[in-house]
Every structure is written in structure tokens, then in C-alpha cells.
Amino acid sequence: MNETLNITHDEKACKFETVVDGITAHVKYKIEDGLFDIRHTIVPKEIGGRNIASKLVETSYKWAESQNLELRATCSYADIWLKRHGYEVPETEDHANGNTCAV
């Protein structure tokens, strides 16, 4: 499904989110030492399979690049997204230790 999402950015909460069919999906991130690290990508199963996670991650990373931040991914989904889109970034210590997020 290729629907247009209304993705909002809550900088105070370090979160990008969208509501689809009344259900919220989001990306949580952390900024530290010039690094933008997606920590969690959450898309409830009720709205899964609609390319929502990819759109959230893409929007998040585009914003980070516009802020001249280096991209990182503790979240396993975001790590795969970066690799699929040609980015070469080192894994975080958390990710290397098996701490990943759920999609």
C-alpha cells in the first residue's frame, strides 16, 4: 500500500509519529555528540505491512541529515533500512550487543 502519511515531529520527546486508522506508529531517537540514533521503530501489527516503518525512518533520517547529524541505528529495522539505501554506518555498541527494537 502506498498511502500518504502525515508524519509529525515532536523534538521535545525525540519522536516522529503518524496515526493510521486511529493507531499510532512512531520512531524514537537520541541525539548525542552529533549523532542521530534511531533507537526504536514501532508499528503496531494492526497497521503493519503498509510501508509505515520505512516512511517514518526515511523522514527521520532526512531531518537528521538536514541538521548535519551523522546517522546511526540502534534499532535493527533502522539499521537494515540504512543498508538497503546505501548508507555505510557503524553499528552502535547497543546493537552489537544484541539490543534491538521491535517493529
Biggest sheet record? 5 strands, mixed
Per DSSP E runs of 2 or more residues, the count of β-strands stands at 5
Structure annotation, total helices = 3
Distance between the termini: 17 Å
Which structural class matches the secondary elements?
A: alpha+beta
Globular, elongated, flat, extended or rod-shaped: what is the shape? globular
Please state the average pLDDT score. Answer: 89
Helix-strand pattern? EEEEHEHH
Q: Would you give an account of this structure?
A:
The protein has about 100 residues and is α+β, with helices and mostly antiparallel strands. Helix content is about 25%, strand content about 30%. The chain has three helices and five strands; from the N terminus they run ββββαβαα. The protein has helices spanning about 50-65, 75-85, 95, and strands at about 10, 15-20, 25-30, 35-40, 70-75. A five-stranded mixed β-sheet has the order 1-2-3-4-5. β1 (about 10) and β2 form a beta hairpin. The chain is globular, with a radius of gyration of 13 Å. The chain starts with 7 loop residues before the first strand and ends in a 7-residue tail after the last helix. The model has no long low-confidence stretch (mean pLDDT about 90).
Keywords, separated by commas or semicolons:
single chain; 103 residues; alpha+beta; five-stranded mixed β-sheet; 3 helices; globular
Task: List the SSEs and their pairings.
Elements: E1 8-10, E2 15-20, E3 23-32, E4 35-42, H1 52-66, E5 70-73, H2 76-84, H3 93-96
Parallel strand pairs: 4-5
Antiparallel strand pairs: 1-2, 2-3, 3-4
Q: How would you sum up this structure in a few lines?
A:
The protein has 103 residues and is an alpha+beta fold. The chain has three helices and five strands.
